[in-house]
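User: I've been going back and forth on whether these two constructs are worth ordering. Before I decide, could you fold them both?

Assistant: Sure. I'll take them in the order you sent them. The first construct and its structure tokens:
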Amino acid sequence: MNPEHDMETVQQQAERWFARLRSEGCSAAELREFDAWLATAAHASAYAQTERLWNELGELSDDAGLKRARHAARRAAKSSMRRTAGRRRLAIAASFAGVLIVALSLWFLGDHSATQRYTTAHGEQRSVMLADGSRVMLNTDTVLEARLGARVRSVQLMQGEALFDVIHDASRPFVVHANGNVISDLGTRFDVNDEGRQTTVTVLDGLVNVERGNHVARLGRGQQLVAGDGIWREGTADPVVAASWSRGQLAFSATPLAQAIASANRYAQEQLVIADPRLDAIRVSGEFRIGNTQAFLRALESAFPIRVEQSGQTIRLYHR
């Protein structure tokens, strides 16, 4: 089950109960039903959240939109008095629910849930602190949008790579959407790399859930998932290596040369190209400073039978 959808359903139930209990004619049977519903921890948390939000709405009492909602609710309540007694109770409950829904919508559309957009240019890295205290490190060429609502903290990784250090809050799930994948935080630090055709999720600490269609995986520290259309591959990864980019380093451990070059090209103006298939068998290990292409090339030339030819911004690698 989608955690975000499940949480929204419970919260909607809490809002309906909140409105019903404040309407006239709430029966003893309904109160018993409410007590049974409230016995679940998730329900109790959602109802407490609704009460807190309602109390905070006092600060919006002068808001023009909220005033219009209250006037509309009063008109609906007066109109309902001309109906039958049974329909009258339902109309009043609907009026209260209408005020609650409009007011909560106003609250959600405020600064608390405004969408924030963060971007990095080619070769740039950026660290941002979200409103809930969670920290996100954006890698090069990354676009990310964050919306921290009162019920769900939702992040859309539109392109690139980001490392998330999440402040865990069971009442407000932290969910990352990336290229058809839904990554739910369970109190953790994790990296998400959207490579276009596939997305790589690597857990550095804690746990995450990943969903894609009918596929579901729970990943712990040092576990990695590569997911895309027709791709679902679980494996392991060194957390230190996976997070090396956030320290300004390219760390490789028996990494295929093509993959190492692709990583280096993400930050450099000069682009490396393998021009000789005999180099495909080379595996690279070591740490290199991000953006220092020449130092990376010198290391390759000294360790492997590689010859370099540069033409403009393109550097071709041959077997010597």
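The second construct, handled the same way:
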Amino acid sequence: MRLKKIILQMSLLGALCLSSCFATQSGKSQYTPNVFSDDKLVRRYDRPVNVVLPALRKTLANAGVITAEDTTINVISARIDTRYVWVKVETDVESDNISRVTYQVRTKSSWLVGGRNPDVRLAAELAEDTFRNLVAQENPQP
């Protein structure tokens, strides 16, 4: 009986050691049992921030629902199906005309499946759609 208690305590301690928190683009910290995979995708666009933001808003509005926008740090939060999306737009350190956009996508929390897993595939699709919207914004079709 004592051995079973020790094994149970060790397995619970191991589960706690493997779980952790992740930081969103807006600076908030959230719990996740999956800490070993990367959840961010960074793209650079040769456009200033004030040009990239409208294209990004259009991308997120077409894909899902924009839930919050922090204009002081240029972070837009959205929900796409069951995914949570945070996108941060900032000026790149190399030039003022280059925007650095960080996409972060996580799944809905579920203890059965070990939720809040990263979804880099959706982040890549959002980055591609943002580029398409930038091109369409600069080259309007009659």
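Notes on the second construct follow. The domain at 2-138 is CATH 3.30.310 (TATA-Binding Protein). Residues 46 and 63 are 23 Å apart (CA to CA).
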